[in-house]
Amino acid sequence: MRPSAEVAIFPGEDVGVSPHASAPVALRGRRPPRITGGLLKYVFLSLGAVVMVVPFVDMLLGSLRTVPERLARPPIYLPAHPQWQNFIRVFHDLPMAQWLTNSVMVTTSITIIQLLTSSAAGYALAKFRFRGRDLILRCILGAQMFPFFLFLIPMFFILRFWPFAGGNSWLGQGGAGFLSSYAGLILPFAVSWYGIFMMRQFMVSIPDDLLDAARVDGASELRIFFTVVLPLARTALATLSIFVFIYQWNEVIWSMTATRIAPKLQTVPVGIFLMRQAFTDERTFSLQQASLVVSVIPVLILFLFLQRYYVRGVTAGAVKG
Amino acid sequence: MRNRLTPYLFLSPALLYAAIFFLLPLGLALTLAFTNFQAFAPHHFVGLHNFSYLLTRDPFFLTTVRNTLVFAVGSLALAIPLSLLVAYTISRSRFKAFWRCIFWLPMATNVVAVAFEWKFLLDGPTGLVNHLLDLLHLPGPGWLSNPHLALLSVILVFVWMTLGSNMLLLSAGLESLDESTFEAARIDGANAVQIFTRIALPLLRPTLLFVMTTDLIIGLSSFPLMLVMTEGGPAQSTTVTALYMYQMAFTDLRLGRASAAAFILFLLIFAITMVQLRLLRKGGLEGYA
What we know:
Pfam family, one (chain B): BPD_transp_1
Largest interface: A-B, 108 and 107 residues
Subcellular location (chain B): Cell membrane
Protein name (chain B): Carbohydrate ABC transporter permease
Largest sheet of chain B: none
Oligomer: heterodimer
Membrane topology (chain B): Multi-pass membrane protein
InterPro entries (chain B): ABC_transporter_permease, MetI-like, MetI-like_sf
Shape of chain B: globular
């Protein structure tokens, strides 16, 4: 086991996609592969890759088929005349533009808010000694063990009957509370215990001397946080932001629950799920698959470009071997 | 004075959130579980009635618990060896980043799209899976319409979906092992299987246990896949407890009883996690708090 500061903070650094990949890993790559074992390895991986990719390919091909091609038995897999207009119909026949707007608004807000709350709390837990610090840290780790389904029902009521919100009286009656606006979709995800823990792990490595120097220069604590700490933490912030963005873009259970009152606020996955009754006719299957493609494409592109950060986000909280 | 309050200032958003969106809902959920709360009907305190009803008289609740356990344990039993095999193979191949990227693809995708797409693929007459079986002259079953197969189908899709994250965590563990240990074993004449089982596996134990713990919690509490693919059917064969709770709450509007169901499931998860954490601590929980 290799004791190294960077591994302790981000085990993901060592996954091999990083330019800092460690020496043993590089050596491993240079070893001449044995022919039989080597071939078997790539056959196995290729088969696996096919299983992973086929649903995405089928999704795309399915969205381009005509109705007769869709209904043919046995099924026709390559569409003779790709129906690209299915993608226009997704925007024309469905409120896809509204769903996308909602998804972008909610996901972006949650990402920005979580970056702020996670880095602030992570900073406090990493760089200050104060009463209750270890207890708070332990509670944050413990809180991650509470599954989200436990909060679904009470969260719905808290946001629905919040006093003075969304036309509610002080008793929480009369309006729809926070559930009539984006706030209802954003507030439950304003803080992430995982995000705090991840930022804390990163910020432990920021040198105390740097912060003390800024204090001696008379900078206020908030100023130090925004002008010294946050710029130093930008790698961790990038990692957290891409991780949160992809996670929240794909979140469906809370969004579905919260938008029961205001269907106008439905996000892309919720919209697609709730449209399923309108889609039971086989002739709409191509349209349905086109809407799946639209829901998958934006975040898939983002992921392919930024997957290195994503990897770090996933592995940051894990134990090292 | 200012210095002593500073950390609390930075922590205040998180503490406020913990009070409003963590402790308050927990208390509320526990309170609701002891009432017969339904959306628009008068409600009152009913003591342990919800709990006793669910555990002794509800026709489906215990079935859903059984389904939950089968789902969680089944997907764990499939996912761990498979993702370990993939992670180990990738760590010994060229183009690591490429392979990893492919296996992560489902992770970047929303569960609704995944579930709908697999519904198409597993569909009896038109689906690709049965079409391929047909080409091999094998009878294609009704993957999602057969009550004996539906849970297995959902498990397989779940394993497909989560393979990437497991593989990733195990890869991180594998990469942090010291290559010189493997070299030494190789010089001593150990073969690939021996190296894997005698050296890689024991060294990987902490990572493995971590992955197993998080996977089990996720497996026991996950329900979106079943909600979209089967809505719990056919014949309740894919209704897991969390899905049952969701439907009880937001379709039947039996919120008190649903809260009780949520707590029973939570206690089950909590008990299992505690057992696993004991194992984790024995396995050496490094760098985790």
